[in-house]
Each structure stands twice: as structure tokens, then as C-alpha cells.
Amino acid sequence: PAMDIPSGLVIFDNSGLHGAHGAPGVSGISGCMQGASGGHGGRGQDAGRGGNAGPIDSYFSANAEGNILIRGILHPREGGQGSDTTLKARLGDPSVEVRMTSAGGHGGDGGHGGRGGDGATGARGRDATQTSSGTNGSRGGDGGRGGDGGDGGDGGNGAISTVHVNQEDMDLVMLLRQIVPPTAGGKGGSAG
Asked: How confident is the model at residue 169 (pLDDT cuts 50, 70, 90)?
């Protein structure tokens, strides 16, 4: 049975899921002996790929009772389930509009590289006395290099959205308001 459209806006969204973000790299260890350099930070984890979108089939028709029937079949997408929904509205209701989108999921962002460890402090210099010169302290250790960022995940693939309508109901296609781009691939994630 068809359900009434509560707000006038019908959205059939079968877009792919967002890819997981990469975990950050571990921090480098700090220098532990006088003048020792800090350890390098760890590499950030690569991000997950965005999920593929699922196809959409939508059917527009009018019945003898003066209703618009809008059926949306969302085929299973990667990581999700499908659905089959039929909605109805009064013919001529100006608030009714339908949007469909089946864009690929965006790739996750790569993990940030780990922070380099702190260099150890240098040895203290000796103070001068009446009979001897003082000495300079030794050089402190270099800080460790920060880790490389992980790679961003690839975007998922978009899918096809198809509208089915009989010739006598062709005017109902005017209800369709597309989200642009409705079937695009997902954006790749940023590197860490």
C-alpha cells in the first residue's frame, strides 16, 4: 500500500558510504641520553575507500482517484540494504518534488604522520674557575622527523538512476528535481 508523502519532498538516496579515516601515526620517542636525537614519527594509516552507490529505479504514475504514485526501488549498495517504497500525493499538489541521488561515497582522509620525538638536551658546560676556563655545553639532540601522512581513500563509484513513466503520465516527470551531480563518483580523501 502507498503511504502519503508527509512533507511534499521525496528523497531517494542510494549513495555510497563514506570511507573510514586513517589512524594517525605514532609519535617518535624522545632522545633519552644527553644529546641524543628524537625518534621519527610513524606513518599515518591509509584511509578506506568510499563505498559504491546502488542503482535507483523510480516509477511515476497517476491513478483514477486523482493520486500521484511514486515508487522508488533502491537496489542494494555496497555496505547497505535495498528498499522498495511507494508513496502517494494528490495530483496537482505544487509542494511535491522528487530527488534522486546515487553518488559514490567519498574516500576517507589519510591519517596524519606521527610527531617526531624531542631531541635530548645537551650536557651542561662547566663554569670557569680562577685557575681554569669554563667549557661549552654539548649540542642538544635533533628532534625526530615527523612521520609521513597516510594516503587518502579512493572515492566509490556512482550508480545509475532510472525513471520509468508511461507516455500518458509523462507530465509527472516534471516532479523530478535532481541533485547535481546525481550519479557522480565519490571524491578521494585528503592525504594525512
From this structure: confident
Average confidence (pLDDT) over 92-108 = 87
C-alpha cell at 136: 661549552
Q: Distance between CA 156 and CA 159 in Å, rounded?
A: 10
Q: Is the pLDDT of residue 136 over 90?
A: no
| Global confidence as pTM | 0.73
Counting Cα atoms < 13 Å in the Cβ hemisphere of 164 gives 9
Q: What is the dihedral sign for C-alpha 179, 184, 185, 187?
A: negative
d(CA 39, CA 112): 17
CA pair distance 141, 164, nearest whole angstrom: 71
Q: What grid cell was written down for 178?
A: 535532481
pLDDT bin (cut points 50, 70, 90) of residue 89 is confident
Cis? peptide before 182, omega within 30° of 0: no
The residue type found at 81 is: Q
Question: How far is residue 109's CA from residue 99's CA, in Å, rounded to a whole number?
Answer: 28
> What is the rounded distance in angstroms from the CA atom of residue 61 to the CA atom of residue 70?
7
Rounded to an integer, what distance in angstroms lies between the CA atom of residue 15 and that of residue 185?
A: 9
Residue with more model confidence, 74 or 138: 74
Tell me which residue has cell 617518535.
Answer: 28
| DSSP bridge partners of 68 | 62, 89
